[in-house]
Specification:
This protein is α+β, with helices and mostly antiparallel strands. It has seven helices and four strands. A four-stranded antiparallel beta sheet has the order 2-1-3-4. A hairpin with a 7-residue loop joins strand 1 and strand 2. The two termini are 48 Å apart.
Length: 226
């Protein structure tokens, strides 16, 4: 909402900024207002603006109908010249939550230990994080990589290499790294995450147990490919 304030007319917001007669702001504001009022809009310009507005309104009719439809078409055109279109960053979202889990080890035989990200699901006992108004781009890109594959996410090769090198700047992008001394091996596994079923009062975890927020099922290897 805040960026939208820049689109409002100066007169609409003038009550928020008391103007002094001797201020430079008043002088500039008065000059711009008088200059704007002196501009004469030709009849041809008015006709062009009117025709353009009517055309856009007419071409927008199927767009609005599509918006109200139960079966919307995203990123589609409804006229031959494609002057007015529908747009949606994610018109279709996968019904399954496939998450990538990055693991490292000092020996190929293990034990393998996970890297923990700041907001993306990993540990099944951790509840979802509150992230607004921030955008954790690495966590977001990990989700996109899980849907398109590593061939279309070449940045991951460098990311995994930096983890093996224990690069501090990269590690700062994570919540925490596994307690390993100079990891030699790294892999990325795919898991299908689901919300855990609510527990009844008589099924509450004991003091030595931790309540699970997620359940996950192993799907397969993401990197290195087998």
């Amino acid at each position: 909402m805040i960026p939208a304030l820049a689109c409002m007319d100066d007169d609409a917001l003038s009550f928020l900024f008391p103007r002094k007669k001797t201020s430079a702001f008043t002088t500039t504001y008065t000059f711009l207002r008088e200059f704007g009022d002196s501009i004469h809009v030709s009849s041809i310009r008015k006709i062009v603006n009117f025709v353009f507005s009517v055309s856009i309104m007419k071409l927008s009719v199927p767009i609005v109908k599509n918006l109200m439809s139960k079966k919307q078409k995203m990123n589609s055109s409804f006229d031959k010249l494609r002057l007015v279109n529908t747009y949606g960053a994610f018109g279709v979202v996968s019904e399954e939550r496939i998450e990538l889990v990055v693991e490292a080890a000092t020996s190929y035989q293990g034990p393998w230990k996970e890297y923990s990200f700041k907001v993306k699901p990993g540990d099944i006992t951790r509840t979802p994080r509150w992230i607004s108004p921030y955008h954790y781009r690495l966590d977001w890109q990990m989700w996109i990589a899980s849907t398109v594959g590593i061939d279309r996410s070449p940045w991951m090769y460098n990311f995994l290499l930096k983890l093996l090198e224990e690069d501090k700047q990269v590690l700062n992008l994570l919540d925490c790294a596994p307690d390993l001394s100079k990891p030699k091996y790294i892999r990325v596994e795919k898991y299908r995450y689901k919300f855990a079923k609510p527990t009844r009062n008589d099924e509450q975890p004991t003091k030595n147990e931790t309540k699970s927020y997620w359940t996950r099922e192993y799907v397969g290897r993401f990197f290195p490919r087998q």
